[in-house]
Specification:
Radius of gyration: 20 Å
Oligomer: single chain
Mean pLDDT: 95
Number of helices: 10
Helix content: 25-40%
Largest sheet: 7 strands, antiparallel
Number of strands: 10
Strand content: 15-25%
Length: 339
Amino acid sequence: MPAGTISHTGVGGLTLGGGMGWLTRHHGLTVDNLLGAEVVLANGALVHASADENPDLFWALRGGGGNFGVVTAFDFALHPVGPEVHVGVFFWDMSVGREALELIREVVPALPPRHSALIGVGLSAPPEPFVPAEHQGRLGHALIIGGFGSAEEHAAAAALLDGGPPRLFEMRTPLPYTQLQSMLDDSSPYGILDYEKGLPLAEFTDDVIALMNDSVRRKTSPLTFCPTFRLDGAFTEVDEDATAYGGSREPGYMLALTALSFDPEELVADTAWVRGLWTELLPHAVGPGGYVNFMAEIEEDRVRASYGPEKYQRLAQIKAEYDPENVFHRNANIVPSLA
């Protein structure tokens, strides 16, 4: 099933907010593959939601978050994957940071079918065996390309990076899909302190690249970085009104500004950094809304902006039917409306 990029992400939050990951380009969001759900409502009733049963609730669950009940079971559509896939990790030093992001901007939308990518802006090279010891901890930008076809197809995808700025290091290898799914687990270990804001971008413009490339030099924690998802392919083939997912289905990027640290003081510093960069990037974004799964600080105006007025109003009316007293409010909250 299409999941995220961290193997220990909870299936409930991932699914109810949308769900972006390695298979989004091929099979859409996690919510696009939800067939049904068992839900405990605020009044204690147990109901089933699907296209045929409680279809309004089923629509709302696919993107509306934990506003409508406690989901105790999910039914998902499944797809054949792997079991082995091809993975390429490419890393550029900050000395060529802007040129690297310009190259990534050209390559990622042009990746051949059966490939997907995750962009790591401002990533500190991890202490992994495939990273030369002298480069571990170096600040730069990374691109991870997952290939779900043949080795030859993946080599052709990687060749799109040739002729660009020199890479500090790279790693190419076949891996079990489950290992790709857990490759980034150490970037979000249990017990980490976190603050996050997201923004949708139509393009990686020159101004966006300049802002991000310059700003990441000012972050404090080596774990803080900006994971960025390319959204196209199957993601764009779903009608915007088919689910409650808050966001455009046009091709583009979802940028997460993610402060991560085990040190509370570092988190305070990088929370301020995230807020500052978010504000600088806002004029270049599709809008002030974001992705509710990348919203650590719940602001009512941003929740409304994330869904848009029509979708938010529909969600608010469904909320009034299934949770009129707003019992489920410790979330990206949708206020019940009888209008």
